[in-house]
Amino acid sequence: MATPESKIPPKPPNPDCDKKLAAIFGGPGAVAAGSGYEPPGMQGPQGGPNFRPHVYRTSHIYGNETGTGVTGVYAPAGGGRPFSRESVAPGAGSYGINYAQLGNARNVTLVISHVANYTNPGRITSRTQIGNIGGPGGNSGGQYPYIHSHLAILNRQGRNLSFADVFCK
Question: Which residue among 10, 57, 121, 137 has its CA within the 20 to 30 Å range from the CA of 3?
């Protein structure tokens, strides 16, 4: 049976878009996978540059090209006060932030999961670090560390929007 993600047709990698997303949502050294491809330096079972639908509609932020580093995770300016999304992703260190406008999308919620060292920043009036990547569920450890945070943009109907469509068109 086909899943909704398996119905997403592969698109060419968009490294410029991924760099833009890393600059918006990540700290120093950040690498993003928001156009559908894992970073080419990814090690172990996640090894890229493979098309992976789960990084098309749910962007990933890594601390470096191999997914082994830690960096900050940021919320762009213009958002409301972060709120816990633990009811949606229990134990995943998930926070939602409502935006009237985020990229070219209106009335959406940015959900950031696997946040470590959450800072509880209050209303997001400027680009703000809300914590670090690699929180609960975002650090596999072991032989192939896979340290990351997930980001999703949900419209009012709860549908995931593509980061490439929202920020890179």
Answer: 137
The CATH architecture to which 5-167 belongs is Distorted Sandwich (2.70)
The 10s digit of each residue's pLDDT in 125-152 is 999 999 999 988 888 877 778 899 999 9
Among residues 59, 78, 75, the alpha carbon closest in space to that of 118 is found at 75
Contacting residues for 110 by C-beta, under 8 A, at least 6 apart: 75, 76, 79, 96, 97, 99, 102, 151, 152, 153
Q: pTM value?
A: 0.86
The residues that bridge with 73 in the sheet, in sequence order, are: 26, 131
DSSP for 81-141, please give it.
--EE-TTTSTTS--EEEEEEEETTEEEEEEEEES-BS-----SB-S-EEEEES--TTSB--
Say which amino acid occupies 168: C
Quick check: helix, strand or coil at residue 31? strand
Task: Provide the β-strand partners of residue 37.
Answer: 51
Amino acid identity of residue 94, one-letter, is S
